[in-house]
User: Fold this.
Amino acid sequence: MSLKRRSFLKGAAGGGAALATAAVVSAPAQARPNKVMPPQAVGLLYDSTLCVGCKACVAGCKEANDLPVDVSTPDALWDTPLDIGPKTFNVIKVYAEGTADTKDQEKNGFAFIKKSCMHCVDPSCVSVCPVTAMTKHPQTGIVEYNADACIGCRYCVASCPFGVPQSEFDTPTPKIMKCEMCKHRQAEGKIPMCAEVCPTGATIFGPIPALTEEINRRKAMKAGEANVFERRVIGSGDTHERPAAKYLDHVYGEKEVAGTQFRHMSAVSFTKLGYPELREQSYSSQSEGIQHSLYQGMIAPVVVLGGLVWAAKRASHIEDEHPEE
Ligand code: SF4
Ligand code: SF4
Ligand code: SF4
Assistant:
C-alpha cells in the first residue's frame, strides 16, 4: 500500500480542515459579564472640591507604608514625587488653566487631583497575573499584592488602565509597588492613612453603600449653600461646615471599567484633570472571554488531528482499491 501525497492532501483538506473550521466557528470569542462588587466592599471617596492640596495624605501614605523619599528637585531636600511610582503610592496633582485664579473652575481656574490604585471591581492586574500574586479580596474587594508569589513578569504593570502598579528598579529582586488601601491598618481596626490625616474630609473612607449614599447627598447639594461634611470615615461624626461646590453629575469610578472602589467627585471635568476616558466593560471581561474561547478552541487541533487521520486512512483505502490511479 502506498499513499500518494496528492490524495492525502486532498482528503485532509476536504475532511480535517472542514471539521476544524466548524469547531473554530462553534467557539467564537465572547466577553464574559463584568464581575460585581464583593459583599463587604470598602472604598475611598476623593472630593476634589474639598481638597486644599496640603499633601498630608501623601506624607501619611509614605509613613504608613514605610516608603522612602522620592525627590524631583536638584537640591534633593524634600520628598517631592511628581507622580505615583515605586516609592510613592499616592500623589496629589494640580490642574491649572489660564490665570488659575479660581478653585474648581475649568477656565482661569485650578483643581486638585488624587492618584492611587482605584481598586477596580474587575481588575485587569488580577486577571493577567499568571501566578495569582495580585488578588482581589473576596469580601472587602481590596486589590492585594503578594511579593512572595510574584515572578516579576510585570503583566500587571502593562495591563492597568490607570498606570498604577510600578516595579522597583533599584534592587536585584524588584517588587511591584502599589496602594493596598492600607490593609495592614484595616487589619488593626484603623482606616487608610490618607483618609485618617485628611483635614477637610476630601479623602474619606467607608463601606461602598455608605460612600454611594454620601456621593448622592453631595450631588443633591445646592452650589454655594453651607453644608456639613464629615472627615476620615463615614459616620465618624467629625464634621465641618462649608459651602458646597457645583458638582459634576459624573462620579469617576462609578461606571468606568465595571466600577472601582475608589471614587472621585469634582467640579472640573475629569478629562481636564487627566483621568482616562474608559468604557463600562472591564478589560478583563473581554480578555478572559477571548482566552476562554481559545481554550475551548483547543478542541479544534484535536478535531483537525482526528480529521487528518480519518482522511489519511480513507485515502489509503482508496489507494488500495485503485492502485493504478
Ligand atoms: S487601578 Fe490598576 S492596579 Fe489598581 S486594581 Fe485597577 S487594574 Fe489593578
Ligand atoms: S489607602 Fe493607604 S496606601 Fe492607599 S493611598 Fe491611602 S494611605 Fe496610601
Ligand atoms: S490630605 Fe486631604 S486636603 Fe490634603 S491634599 Fe490630601 S486629599 Fe487634599
